[in-house]
Amino acid sequence: MLTELQKKKLTYYFHAFDVDKNGFLEESDFDRIVDAYAEAYKIPKDSATYQEISSNFAKNRWNTLAKEADKNADNKVNLDEWFSYHDKLLNDPKSDFIWLRITSALFEVLDVDKDDSLALEEYQTMYNFYGFGNESLSAENFFKLDFDGMAKLGEMM
Questions:
Q1: What is the CATH number of domain 4-110?
Q2: Which of 32, 69, 97, 102 is 20 to 30 A removed from 87 (C-alpha atoms)?
Q3: pLDDT (tens digit, 9 = 90+) per residue, 96-114?
């Protein structure tokens, strides 16, 4: 069973992914995240890079979420389904692999220059298109995660 802190954090992330703010996660929300990312980095929609990001992040993430969380098969995931999905994940001894796949896919998308690390600008772009906070907050959190002081976050954040 999820703790109140876990529910609070998961609610925050649910609303970050719910780009159109209609109270549901849908495939279109993940497409909009990819579009915001492409716009931030001026990636043309007809490019191979855009197609790769769309396929690896939006489509794969949405398909997994829809398959595992959308219990009533309405092509939407509501907050209760989101909680149930994550409760199952957090209590599954095999879930470390799933979390690794999710974070690796996100890392691949965010690592625009493909140097196997995230620079402050890449990290701040994530904050902007998810609506996590302002540049000051993203910089503060970035430097808390920058354990070696190299101004880069490695893949295993």
A1: 1.10.238.10
A2: 32
A3: 667 677 777 778 878 888 8
